[in-house]
Amino acid sequence: MLLTGGLKSLLPHVLRRIIRCNRHSISNTSGMAEGYKQANIVILHKSLADDFEKFCHANNGPLPLLYRSKPGDWKCPSLSSDSDIRTDCPQCRVYEHGAFTGSVKSLKEYSEQLKDMVTFYLGCSFSFEKAIQNAGIPVRNVEQECNVSMYKTAVPCYSISTFCCNLVVTMRPIPESKLEAAVLATSELKEAHGAPIHIGDPGLLGIQDLSKPDYGDPVHLHPGDIPVFWACGVTGVEAVINCRSPLAFTHSPGCMFITDLKNDSVTVGSSSEVPQVYCISQDPLHYSMVSAEATQKIKNLENLIGIDPGDRGIIHLHRPDELLKACLAISHARSVLITTGFPTHFSYEPPEENDGPPGALAIAAMLQALEKDVAIVTDQRAMDLNKKIIDDAVQLGILKRPVPLLSYQRENADSALRFLCENGNRRRPRFDHLIAIERAGMAADGNYYNARKVNIKNLVDPIDDLFLAAQTIPGVTTTGVGDGGNELGMGKVKEAVKKHIKNGDTIACDVEADFTIVAGVSNWGGYAIACALYILSTCEIHDRYLRKAVGFPQLLKKKTWLSALPSVTKEEKRQGHTRAKCMSSESRASCY
């Protein structure tokens, strides 16, 4: 990349003149005209222009529209004072019926055809490079004097007429300590693609090998760097290819049109606009994004459910931000498996307490509203009871439809893996996330105990196996919800259970979950998960990150999500319909 002789700091109109005269060989414009907006270019026949504009608006993350010309107009007065699109891109590509037929430095030979064509100027991530540098973040491709890396993904864009393609992204290595700064620096620069659409493992986007970009050059990561992906205007090139128009032109990826518009410094306003970054998985590495406002609401929920009505010392089990991280992971999941059931009343039939199932139903109802697949796994002996609970919940309108009810039995060493994955293949998991809420958890000696140290192993199927197997399956995360330390998933806080909970040395669950939600009553934890999922779904920053900045915001579904939230009225209807007798705090405490 030629940046010598001050090309890097020249004003846009001077750079355009140099490009127009073809005085220098410019392989890409990254790092040039610092602080000024650059643009991707798509030129199509006027008959396709309206549909392409709709396609841009439907996918405004990768295709932020800066300007649309009139047919045959080679200038863009709102972007530059003295430009000619035929000559002012360092290099353009020619496509005929979707096939790339060559690169040219000037489109003047196509002047006659261009009279019936419309030029679209689309925002470019090169525009935010100066903002990243100003935040103290290295731009590795500029350091390495090469083009940025661009990759085709497996993420489909929202289709309009003949325009359909998958999202293209740029990747920039960012030091882990600078991730949030990079997000803040770019989030409000929406005409330059805005905030990243993915942080972490490229495989989650369908990218197999970072060393082999589809466009641009490979950019090397330094130790401690995390791959960060932004939506890319080369998505427009893919749309042109798939639309197969008789003749079309685009910029050559990396060779942008440089405008006279400055990237004005943008200050983030309210907390609803301030993005925050959280790691939700190590294998594969995956970060999520949420607004500071939504984060604070979920923290408040976490504090509320942490009240200890039985004064059992659960405050010592609390781990901050576990509710937030668990719900971020659940939000990214497509299919969720829930388990519940604690047969603490071992001398009664049925022996289950009524803490757990209501919370599980609340989670399931919200997952259904969010259009995720959800199933419940429970003990074989409790299948009829749970089927009745689910049927009643559907009849009362708590659930939209019945939840598949499963049981698990250990038949051999591979049983758990085969239950969780198709044919036991770790690359094909049936579930992305497992949730245990008030589920008896296996202690270190292999037994299951209620709070009074009574061994109830004979009443409990080994569903813990599924959580242990999940630890070996990339991309599958787990959450445990409990209120005493003897519940499945509480192995993450077992040392605190042993130290601070009565009988903890014996009863502490030994099986860990990735996220541990501690509540005064486990049902509260289930209700909090449902509410937190609602908060995340109505968070614009998180919604954009989930849909990878393609398609339209999902906030129109807010009414459906709201109706799925747990409420006192729903709980009263459920209890009355099933004639369940709620235990008072005192009677519940006596069972422990």
Describe the structure.
One of its GO terms (biological process) is glutamate metabolic process. GO terms for molecular function: D-glutamate cyclase activity. InterPro entries: D-Glu_cyclase (IPR009906), GLUCM_C (IPR025504), Putative_hydro-lyase (IPR038021). Pfam families: D-Glu_cyclase (PF07286), GLUCM-like_C (PF14336). With 592 residues, this protein is α+β, with helices and mostly antiparallel strands. The protein folds into two domains: 12-262, PSTPO5379-like fold (2-Layer Sandwich); 276-582, inorganic pyrophosphatase (n-terminal core) (Alpha-Beta Complex). It has 20 helices and 20 strands. It has helices spanning 12-21, 46-58, 111-114, 129-134, 140-143, 179-187, 235-243, 292-305, 322-332, 357-369, 383-395, 415-420, 464-470, 494-500, 504-507, 522-537, 540-546, 558-563, 568-578, 585-591, and strands at residues 36-45, 65-68, 92-96, 99-104, 117-123, 149-156, 166-175, 198-200, 215-216, 225-231, 248-251, 257-262, 275-282, 285-291, 335-341, 373-378, 405-407, 433-439, 477-482, 515-518. Strands 1, 2, 3, 4, 5, 11 and 12 form a seven-stranded antiparallel sheet that branches. A hairpin with a 2-residue loop joins strand 3 and strand 4 (99-104). The N and C termini lie far apart (71 Å).
Concise structural overview:
The chain is α+β, with helices and mostly antiparallel strands and 592 residues long. It is 30% helix and 20% strand. Strands 1, 2, 3, 4, 5, 11 and 12 form a seven-stranded antiparallel sheet that branches. The protein has a seven-stranded antiparallel sheet with strand order 9-6-7-10-8-14-13, sandwiched between helices. The chain has a six-stranded parallel sheet with strand order 17-16-15-18-19-20, with helices on both faces.
